[in-house]
Amino acid sequence: MQLTKDQIASANGNLNDHEADFNYLANKLSRSGTDVESLVKSLADFQVAVPSWALGAGGTRFGRFSFHGEPGNLEQKMDDVGILHALTQTAGAVSLHIPWDTPQDYAAVKQIANRNGIVFDAINSNTFQDQPGSKYSYKHGSLANTDEAIRAQAVQHNQEVVRIGEKLGSKSLTIWLADGTSFPGQRSFQKALAQTEKSCQEIYTALPEDWSLLIEYKPYEPNFYSTVIMDWGTSFMLANACGDRAYTLVDLGHHLPNTNIEQIVATLMAKGKLGGFHFNDSKYGDDDLTVGSIKPYALFLIFNELVYGMRHNPENPNLAWMIDASHNIKDPLEDLIQSLEAIQEAYAKALLIDQIALSEAQLNHDVVKCQEILQEAYRTDVRPLLQRARLSRGGALSPLAAYRSLKVRENLIRERGMHTVATGL
Ligand code: LRH
Ligand code: MN
């Protein structure tokens, strides 16, 4: 299924209300010196990669409730990303996970990507599950395993994933390791870290010169006592041990409760080692919930550091913006539409922060004014700006309303049937 610009324009209907809301906001923002046109362009240019593993219903060990009309293969997943991009005009990339999404027909997959205006962002390896026919098991770890042959198998898998990514045009490899322990005494922390560092260096040195390595950290799950790459500091250390094109990837759900993630972001950008994000939200653990559904203010504060960093840390690379979510009860496409909207909203509000006034208030230790400057931006309803950015690229005034009025899910079920199951989590 594909959505045409005409279908979306008809779903948009009359734009008078949008015009009125936009003009009111644009006048208000222009009065305080905001360049509204360039802000709208920044939003329109901001593209987020959709995770290929989150286009079907997710689940937990307690159960999985199917969502009908799921994509049954990579080609259908690409079509679904195309639908998201047609509606939101901000989902112009996909992040694949191997072997869940190993292309069978590269030409067909690339043709669908081109047709939908989608590029291939970071590609993900998987050494947290055993593959049918694989010689060794990753039950006791992969890149950190005590057994050299198992580490070699895991390094080889990562190199194979890079070769797949090269054929598609990806330029970065994301490594997330489940490696760790569930009981004290189960492993030597130092040996596990040393072996992980050596394995990452082997993968890094085999990377094509124009590729980067993104090292994702996580404090726990599926191991519940220790994880080798447990926090930003360990990932940062490993990235430095690898080289200039190795960076830390921040998954918002991979932090212990009340962690100050915006400070981690500022620290990594200051050191030029922030490589990218997995956006989601969480209340307790790695809940992989809709972005901005639990802690929207925290997301805003993170984007404040990102906007500052993008202006003051030229040594930091262009960031890989990706979503990493799991949809246990919502329609996956509606959930992703909400996440894309929340990311755009946080970015727009952060762009409204008067950074000069903020620096001055910080210098004067005017703590109250610092908060007022942040919250003035946060309290601004920026949705007319997001709408304008989408409309400027032929997108939907309200992607969710258009998704429903165009009966996309019903059409997908008619095309694919009730029982297709998407690969992934
Ligand atoms: C681990 C993780 C990682 C992916 C997986 C699907 O929790 O965030 O990014 O490989 O989810
Ligand atoms: Mn992740």
From TrEMBL:
InterPro entries in alphabetical order = L-rhamnose_isomerase, Xyl_isomerase-like_sf
Q: Which GO terms describe its molecular function?
A: isomerase activity; metal ion binding
Per its UniProt entry, which superkingdom is the organism in?
Bacteria
Q: Is Metal-binding there in the keyword field?
A: yes
**Entry keywords, A to Z:** Isomerase, Manganese, Metal-binding
What PANTHER family would the database entry show?
L-RHAMNOSE ISOMERASE
Entry protein name: L-rhamnose isomerase / sugar isomerase
Record organism: Neolewinella agarilytica
